[in-house]
């Protein structure tokens, strides 16, 4: 077998689980809801051998024409596309290659392949799956997506995995994924969604770009950003760095419907796309959620981003081994074992997004459509928040002749050792100065908060910036943790 076609999932049992099995419990007790085009429920990857029952809070059910019965692995299945006509010759509901593949990446049961001796496993093999069919032969429609998210929240999912999106939406209020997922975050559900497969094409952007979503690009086994992975900056979010993270998305070996065997002997196939990366990160989110069930979606997102690998990440779209920009890789390549123990997290309450949405210039009606069913807000009654001032684990600023310096404030929460000290380490490109105040953070207890400011400015007399797309980094370093955030610096306004 060509080694480039062996998915990273094959080595999870030896690399990831051996490193952190005691802490992560392989996702046990977490339900991942997958929105996609169908699932082969009888596939060995969805066997419930050795699986415990779903948590007592689970309220879902099995109501899908293509799913004969659920079990302790696939604990729910719902269909929202039966009203859509299916062209002759198309597979019956439930036979989706895309949905089967994505679901098994997130939380598939380990399956031994007799042909090559490998074991194919989902990222969180002890997590439960709930499947919601929202896509049919003609694509994915707003109505089914909205209805499925509402159903998933009522059922009690902990993580949503969405390998779908619209990078052409004119605004958040017109994007069904954005509008549907805010209610998920309000209920404490982590949302992982694909960044898209448009690569670095001129005029293209990243999908699923709301700041409350973990927007996932694709990395390759060569420690690089895949050429097809969509790049930022976002056209709609006002200056929040996207994508947030990149994860394995090239030649990922996972389940496909048994009626569509493509080799590997047991209905498994190697597929590529950010559609593979998003469920991978959904599995990672389940690992973190299992280890820290009380953490908010923003805290889990922060844990994943601040522990990512940024060292020598290349960009395949640029060629020649060129370093990937933050607009390509976000915070870096996911490191699942480190994500369960981040040391510090950057938390955000759902209510903090209200003044941010008002600051984007939306009308009261548009804001309230996005945040529904949260109580209605009136933008004139609150002070708006700029995108750069959200407490995200990333910073994005524009330096111009009129604005040669920008200062932002961030707050971290201690989730590591009760008594700990972090000292700042900064890296900055030539021509730019990055200063952090204070330079040291001391904590005496768990969940204690500390704030700091970051000032990014042009060096006086430093001449023109070498590029319009520069990167700096702030890292808080203790004896046990390194907590990094990327700083994307543009020479033009958004």
Automatic annotation (TrEMBL):
What are the Subtilisin-like protease fibronectin type-III domain coordinates in residue numbering? 389-489
Q: Which GO terms describe its molecular function?
A: serine-type endopeptidase activity
Q: List UniProt keywords, sorted A-Z.
A: Hydrolase, Protease, Serine protease, Signal
Q: Which organism is it from?
A: Urochloa decumbens
| Occurrences of domain Peptidase S8/S53 (ranges) | 27-316
In the record, the note on similarity to other proteins reads: Belongs to the peptidase S8 family.
The record ties this protein, via SUPFAM superfamilies, to:
Subtilisin-like
Question: From which residue to which does the signal peptide run?
Answer: 1-22
Q: Name one GO biological process term.
A: proteolysis
Q: What is this protein called?
A: Uncharacterized protein
Positions annotated as active site in the UniProt record: 36, 98, 275
Please indicate which superkingdom the organism of origin belongs to.
Eukaryota
Q: Extract the InterPro entries matched here.
A: Peptidase_S8/S53_dom, Peptidase_S8/S53_dom_sf, Peptidase_S8_Asp-AS, Peptidase_S8_subtilisin-rel, SBT, Subtilisin-like_FN3
